[in-house]
Design a protein that fits this description.
This protein is an alpha+beta fold. The protein contains 3 helices and 7 strands. A hairpin with a 4-residue loop joins β3 and β4. The longest helix has 10 residues, at 93-102. The protein is globular, with a radius of gyration of 18 Å. The relative contact order is 0.22.
Length: 134
């Protein structure tokens, strides 16, 4: 974050989007597959179906591993499944906004989705629009 601040012009903005973790939900759903939407390419007819599952979660360190699953269905009826594993550190909104402040940013707006809805504990993502601190 400090490097972002060093490269940001005085009238610039940083917009950061990260997951808005619900630690109790994560801990209670380890191994469960969560649908995450689908996309069909109109040109090829190929459909990608996304889902994820948390595999491990350590609340004291706020670290989790999760697997992202993509099922690809082609127009001719063939299917393939792809997996990608991630090891992440999750940041609740108050911690992230504190880190942004420590790095020299002022959080100008916090949202809970790209549609402009407010950030709440139930929001899937957190979006923060930041400017440089004076």
């Amino acid at each position: 974050l400090a490097s972002f601040r060093q490269h940001l012009e005085d009238d610039g903005e940083l917009i950061i989007e990260v997951a808005n973790p619900d630690f109790s939900s994560i801990a209670g759903s380890l191994g469960d597959l969560h649908p995450a939407g689908s996309y069909t390419d109109p040109a090829s007819g190929r459909t990608l179906v996304h889902a994820s599952r948390y595999d491990t979660f350590d609340e004291p360190t706020r670290r989790a591993t999760f697997t992202w699953r993509i099922d690809e269905h082609t127009a001719d009826g063939e299917s393939k499944t792809f997996f990608r594993e991630f090891d992440v550190r999750l940041f609740p909104a108050p911690e992230l906004t504190g880190l942004l402040s420590d790095a020299g940013f002022v959080v100008q707006e916090s949202l809970g989705d790209f549609d402009g809805s407010p950030l709440t504990p139930r929001s899937d993502v957190q979006l923060h629009r930041c400017g440089p601190a004076a």
